[in-house]
Specification:
- There is one protein chain.
- The chain is 45% helix and 19% strand.
- The strands form five sheets. Strands 6, 7, 8, 9, 10, 11, 12 and 13 form an eight-stranded mixed sheet that branches.
- The protein has 17 helices and 20 strands.
- It is elongated and about 105 Å long.
- It is α+β, with helices and mostly antiparallel strands.
Length: 509
């Protein structure tokens, strides 16, 4: 540390009350600016993740071709497939991995002895799939099950049941099975799939407790190798599958596993609305339409977030008899496997021109435009906060100017004992930089904390899942600008101090 810097530090210690107000102004201004940057980045990240696909790694699904359906439903129940097909599928050209998916009902018992989820949302259990691209769940804490009796639980279910890693509880399949929680998982970055509880077991335990006999699975998930399209993969698989077994693309499976299974008398509602109306899967909700009619619907799904669909979702077939004017506010288009988003957008635009030429956007463009309103609001906030920081930095300059006047005798004595003009200028500039540096650093830390608090508060106040996101580049720019502005704020006071007449300064009272 050079002499000028040591003198600056000593001066700040000796006159800390003088600079406390200026430090606080910089500190609070930078804190609010950093907090707003963090919150803005979090909101943008949330708009992007809103359109993510948790099952993007599945390129094909092998399943039974026969289904049993009931009136009003379109999906039905399928017979299991034989897991002995897995080695045959793995030998098909273009297949990178094939894993059986075993599914069944499995309700966890919480630490208080009560079933997690009660009699409401679905309680699922299945084998834990080790291929991360075929498994929509991700280990957040702990590890995957490796031995009989070990399970992974989605984090939301664990929190509701008061369960932690290492706890032993009961899984009702419906026969009671004693299990030990060895891992907590997330689904698509969230604590679970809406209110659905999931328990992942070893494949051997899943076959033992969730199937009629070993060697059966609900389906076989298949991942394609590099450069192999989903359509080509399904074509290759179809040629080796036995009668009664079919292969569909991952996109087709995703569409089927969406809300198409609601049928003409089913409804899906948000988790928040289900809580307000005291509804659960299997319950009955009554809807009144704009044509004045009221119709009962069976709740067949509960979902977590309402940004795109609102609080209630029914199929178009259920809506059609009650519509007064058929007008779509948004049409989502799924491209065939292998279609480039730009080419697909161009094709849709040519068709859309005949219907009033509506705006056509890719998924990324739609997410960006949805966040546009937030960007406008944040830009105004940024401008006001930047003005507050500027005023704080002007305060540094004014404080230093007044300090020079008050310390005239002190500065004169320093010059008298050998301090040069350049050293005096450097000392005053260092005082300015140090005040700005401490204020900026403290403000960034407090701002990041405030941003985290806002994210947590926002997540708890709505059904939107906000993932905390720090903008490192922007925060680094704020830090550098704060240091540079501190150096600039000290230039004028430093020049004034260096021009002091030594004899007059010493004689000053």
């Amino acid at each position: 540390m050079n002499a000028s810097l040591r003198l600056s530090v000593s001066s700040l210690r000796a006159h800390k009350r003088r600079f406390a107000g200026t430090f606080l102004a910089v500190f609070l201004g930078v804190a609010f600016l950093a907090g707003t940057l963090v919150m803005g980045d979090t909101l943008r990240a949330s708009f992007s993740s809103m359109f993510g696909d948790a099952t993007a790694g599945t390129d094909a699904v092998v399943r039974s071709a026969d289904t049993i359906t009931t009136p009003g439903e379109s999906q039905g129940v399928r017979q299991p497939v034989d897991t002995s097909l897995v080695p045959t599928i793995e030998k098909v050209p273009g297949v990178a991995a094939a894993v059986p998916q075993i599914e069944g009902r499995g309700q966890l018992v919480g630490a208080d002895g009560k079933p997690v989820g009660g009699q409401g949302p679905p309680t699922l259990a299945g084998n834990w799939i080790t291929d991360s691209r075929l498994n929509p769940y991700r280990i957040a804490e702990g590890r995957a099950p490796a031995r009989s009796g070990e399970v992974v639980v989605n984090r939301g279910a664990a929190e509701k049941g008061g369960l932690r890693i290492g706890d032993t509880t009961t899984l009702r399949t419906p026969d009671p099975v004693e299990v030990t929680v060895v891992g907590l998982a997330t689904f698509g970055g969230q604590d679970g799939m809406a209110q659905v509880t999931f328990t992942g077991m070893t494949r051997a335990d899943a076959e033992k407790y969730l199937t009629a006999e070993p060697g059966q699975a609900a389906s076989i998930q298949v991942r394609a190798g590099p450069g192999v399209s989903q359509a080509r993969l399904v074509s290759e698989l179809t040629s080796v599958l036995p009668k009664g077994v079919e292969a569909i693309t991952g996109q087709e499976s995703a569409r089927e596993n969406s809300l198409d299974h609601l049928g003409s008398d089913g409804i899906a509602i948000t988790e928040e609305e289900a809580g307000r109306q005291h509804l659960a899967v299997g319950g009955t909700a009554r809807l009144t339409f704009t044509d004045g009619t009221t119709q009962p619907f069976t709740v067949r799904a509960v979902y977590g977030r309402s940004e795109l669909a609102g609080d209630y979702v029914i199929t178009r077939a259920a809506w059609a008899p009650h519509r007064t004017q058929d007008s779509d506010t948004l049409v989502a288009v799924a491209f065939r496997p292998g279609v480039d988003p730009a080419d697909g957008k161009a094709a849709v635009q040519r068709v859309a021109e005949r219907f009033g030429n509506p705006s056509v956007q890719t998924r990324d463009e739609y997410a960006q435009s949805s966040a546009g309103g937030i960007d406008m609001m944040l830009s105004l906030v940024y401008a006001l906060l930047a003005l507050a920081v500027l005023i704080a930095l002007l305060g540094i300059a004014n404080t230093l100017t007044l300090a020079i006047h008050e310390r005239t005798r002190e500065l004169g004595l320093l010059r008298a004992v050998g301090q040069t003009r350049s050293q005096l200028r450097a000392m005053v500039r260092w005082e300015s930089v140090l005040v700005a540096a401490f204020g900026t650093t403290g403000g960034l830390v407090l701002g990041a904390f405030l941003g985290w608090v806002l994210v947590e508060a926002s997540g708890g106040a709505s059904d939107t899942a906000f993932a905390f996101a720090l903008p490192p580049v922007r925060l680094a720019v704020v830090a550098l600008v704060g240091l540079a502005a501190g150096a600039l704020a000290g230039l004028r006071p430093a020049r004034r101090a260096a021009r002091l007449d030594v004899l007059r300064a010493i004689a000053a009272e």
